[in-house]
Amino acid sequence: MLKIQNLHAEVEEKSILKGLNLEVKAGEVHAIMGPNGAGKSTMASVIAGKEEYEVTSGTIELEGEDISELAPEERAHAGVFLSFQYPVEIPGVTVTNFVKTSINESRKAQGLEEMPAKEMLQKIREKSELLEIDRKFLSRSLNEGFSGGEKKRNEIFQMAMLEPKLAILDETDSGLDIDALRIVANGVNKLKSKDNAVIVITHYQRLLDYIVPDYVHVLHDGKIVKTGDASLALELEAKGYDWIKEEVNS
Questions:
Q1: pLDDT-derived band at 210, boundaries 50, 70, 90
Q2: Cβ–Cβ contacts within 10 Å for residue 25, how many?
Q3: Of 12, 15, 137, 144, which shows the fewest CB atoms inside 10 Å?
Q4: By the 8 A CB rule, do 19 and 6 touch?
Q5: Is the pTM above the cut of 0.90?
Q6: Mind listing the pLDDT tens digit for each residue in 116-133?
């Protein structure tokens, strides 16, 4: 699904990613953990194609195709979805209209007709019920006046509607109370399939109690320095990151 090889990237001439290697197969959930400044959000942004980040070497392949030179919207049309840490507000554009436009733009890029209104309505109904979203929520302006939990739930709703091949959740758990965390995590779990893959970027073990990863990777100084199963996250929770740094430097 996703294959990253020897990826180096910088922002404002500051080197952030320094030889990152990662392979994610269809049907898998990978968790990325690491201390502040390790490069976690940069990795997510670079995969999604955010233009302020410059890739200086290395490759990013999605299903065998190099997407390194594609614009962000082209990567989105190819099946990459990034859930933002701080979603933006768009006054005057409802959640429903935003999602309809996103889906139809993606279909247009693939040479397809717009989704019929009846089919769109049915899909919106199914996905909102799946994620326990009130119908009134969908008529509100995108993220305007939303709580942290509502913003994150809205992002998962967009993910459900767009059905991406690769979903990257960048600190989706930040600022969520236990109930919101459970609803968001349950939504992600319901959307997992053998045909898609999920990368979860998080500081905390608590999210991984709900979304159990197949692999946990520790990012340190711009590269992955340790990989394990879900138990690695528990070890990090108990011991912090200093022992990783010592292990790397020894």
A1: confident
A2: 12
A3: 12
A4: yes
A5: no
A6: 999 999 999 888 888 788
Q: How far apart are the first and last CA of the chain?
A: 34
Tokens of 211: 């979304």
Residues 6+ apart with CB under 8 A from 36: none
* Residue 89, pLDDT score: 66
Alpha-carbon span 154 to 222, nearest angstrom: 30
List helix spans (H) across the chain. Answer: 40-48, 72-78, 95-109, 117-130, 148-162, 178-191, 206-210, 230-239, 242-249
For residue 112, is it left (φ>0), alpha (ψ between -120 and 50) or beta? beta
Is the pLDDT at 218 greater than 80? The verdict is yes
Owner of token pair 């009134």: 136
